[in-house]
Amino acid sequence: MATFPSCAIQEPRLPNCYALPSQNPVARAYCVRKAQNSPRPELIVPRRKALCYGPTPQVFDVNAVDCGMVRLVGAVALTSLVGCSEVIDIPDDPRLVNSGPWWCLDRPRETVAPKADTALVRIQACNFISTNCSETVTGLSASLCDKKDVTCANPIQTTTADSGGVLALDVQTGGVLGLGFDGYLKIAPPLELCTNQAVFGASGPLLCGFAPGCDQAAPDDRCKVPLYAPSSLFFNPPIKNDVVDSIPLPLVPTSAVLSLVTASGAQLDPTAGLVFVTAHDCNDKPASGVSFNLDKHQDRVTVLYLENGLISSTATATDSNGLGGIINVPSGFVSVEGSIETTDGTRRPMGAFGVQVATFNISYSTLAPSP
């Protein structure tokens, strides 16, 4: 399928239309119209054309271009190409590529095969409550697990974070299905005595209640709890090839989990789990306007979104950060589904992923578009 480059610009004279840059206003009238009830732009050209650039740019064999409610008439028909220095052929079925945040939703999914049996993945751990997650988290260890190994009883490999908070792993991408690695990384944060008020503050006594056998009057190793909430990172989409940029992992300090949820206006059930979601668009950028939904437990869970830098229980979709979460999720496998609003005010699915949830554990994953 022939394509145009993603350099289309808005045509100021024609509402909702976009055109390829050109000095010739007629040539620029190859427009893009947003298809009804779809966020995918559609390039409208009636049939094969030739754009002619020379001392006087001209258009050969152009009749009319329909852009929404506007019909542009008066294009120039030439009988020869005299004076033209170059002829650019426009295909019969042109398409505009990579336009807008959701251009991929109406296109068939491209199959990408793994290039090797393993792929390098780097995860950058950071403190969620620090400004822009700028504070790195060190002292972590992690186990790479198969998605169906719910307790990670047989880890594929283990690793520790370096001094910059980076976890580096080679994951297995081979296999007869050729689908890549869709397992998870089980994070083990460093431990500290729950009685350490300098670390846990007022949350200490509550956290000590989660430490079996802990005597707060005479604290020992049985009173040690994680500095950050126990977490699992589920890879979505599956890893097929080396990941160029490190995957951010915004860990939440254990002492801050309860206060963050309470400040949002919600109530936390410490016997349930949490799901931390990052929504991405078709350009692999954080996506705004995405709403999350769980496939079960609707009467028990609460959906939260990051709104203007604060966690909100009243927001209904992601902002430009693309971040949100679901709290009070019972243990087990769940599916998180995402939707976006269309031009007619209805919502359409944009993607989904599955994760395993455990008690007082945060399950992280990315909600990526899927046609």
Q: Helical proportion? A: under 10%
**CATH class category name of the largest domain:** Mainly Beta
Query: For this entry, what is the oligomeric state of its chains?
Result: single chain
CATH third-level topology of the largest domain:
Immunoglobulin-like
* H/E element sequence: EEEEEEEEEEEEEEEHHEEEHEEEEEEEE
* Average pLDDT score: 78
User: How much of the residues is beta strand, in percent?
Assistant: 35-45%
Number of domains: 2
In short:
The protein has helices spanning 197-200, 204-208, 254-263; strands at residues 9-10, 18-19, 31-34, 41-44, 49-53, 58-60, 65-67, 70-72, 86-90, 118-127, 141-145, 157-160, 166-172, 184-188, 191-193, 224-226, 231-234, 247-251, 273-279, 291-294, 302-307, 310-312, 323-329, 332-341, 347-357, 362-367.
Structure description:
It is a single chain. This protein has 371 residues and is mainly β. The chain has 2 domains: 82 residues, no CATH class; 214 residues, Immunoglobulins (Immunoglobulin-like). The chain has 3 helices and 26 strands. The strands form 8 sheets. It has a 9-stranded mixed sheet with strand order 12-11-14-17-26-19-23-21-22, with helices on one face. A 3-stranded antiparallel sheet has the order 6-5-9, with no helix packed on it. β7 and β8 form a beta hairpin. It is globular. The N terminus is likely disordered.
Summarize the helices and strands and which ones pair or pack.
Elements: E1 9-10, E2 18-19, E3 31-34, E4 41-44, E5 49-53, E6 58-60, E7 65-67, E8 70-72, E9 86-90, E10 118-127, E11 141-145, E12 157-160, E13 166-172, E14 184-188, E15 191-193, H1 197-200, H2 204-208, E16 224-226, E17 231-234, E18 247-251, H3 254-263, E19 273-279, E20 291-294, E21 302-307, E22 310-312, E23 323-329, E24 332-341, E25 347-357, E26 362-367
Parallel strand pairs: 10-18, 17-26, 19-26
Antiparallel strand pairs: 1-2, 3-4, 5-6, 5-9, 7-8, 10-13, 11-12, 11-14, 14-17, 15-16, 19-23, 20-24, 21-22, 21-23, 24-25
